[in-house]
Amino acid sequence: MSTPKYKVIYFNFMWLAEPTRLLLSYVKEDFEDVRLDWDEWEKPDSKITNKDDYPYRKLPALEDTENGLILGQSFTIVRYLGRKYKLVGKTEVEAAKCDEYADVLKDMLKEIEVMDDKDEKTKSVMKTNFLEKTVPRYFSVIESNLKKNGGKFLVGNSITWIDFLLAQMAQNFSNYLETDVIANYPTIKGHQQQIFEIPEIKAWIAKRPVTQY
Ligand SMILES: N[C@@H](CCC(=O)N[C@@H](CS)C(=O)NCC(=O)O)C(=O)O
């Protein structure tokens, strides 16, 4: 067996690394799926001594053995692979729309991540705000744009990195909030189902470790 071209280093979650894992599965690139122990990483006297090997001491990181690159920042990683495999849109406008949607998802993600260390009452208020204000603000626009574009691809007439990012981030938000955040957005829901049904993606989903997030 040949050595995989890529190493995806993260923890045993889907969260920020899964869009990359989906994209690599889609382009049929074998990758080493390295999952570090989160609890161990968090310990002040952690046995993980090579944290400095990873950009900003944060994960996920992608190692590309073709050119020696070690890349940090999850959205940058998916965009990089998108570029490499020509999944970034066919025009500058399409590429810009991919970036716009990615920034939307990042704004949403930020709101979720700040909930994490809050007490249950505060978290519940933040969750309601997210579901009642944030989700409609962003997803109603994406729903309408996606519908106008035919429902299959967010941008243009072929798959791009943002299709993987949206499908997985919507899943992440739903898993974290224990509510299907796209239940009221049938076009986004249908798009997500189509992405998860792509044979290469379906095969990855069937074999990946089962995790809550
Ligand atoms: N903006 C970064 C965030 C990366 C990040 O915060 N990763 C967390 C895990 S989800 C981490 O590595 N935390 C470990 C630490 O801060 O020591 C990205 O999208 O990759």
Automatic annotation (TrEMBL):
Keywords, comma-separated and alphabetical: Transferase
Species per Swiss-Prot/TrEMBL record: Orchesella dallaii
Every GST N-terminal domain range: 4-89
Full protein name: glutathione transferase
Catalytic activity reported: RX + glutathione = an S-substituted glutathione + a halide anion + H(+)
InterPro entries: Glutathione-S-Trfase_C-like, Glutathione-S-Trfase_C_sf, Glutathione_S-Trfase, Glutathione_S-Trfase_N, GST_C, GST_superfamily, Thioredoxin-like_sf
Classification via Pfam families: GST_C_3, GST_N
Family: Belongs to the GST superfamily. Sigma family.
Enzyme Commission number(s) from the entry: 2.5.1.18
Domain of life: Eukaryota
Enzyme class per UniProt: transferase
Domain GST C-terminal: 91-213
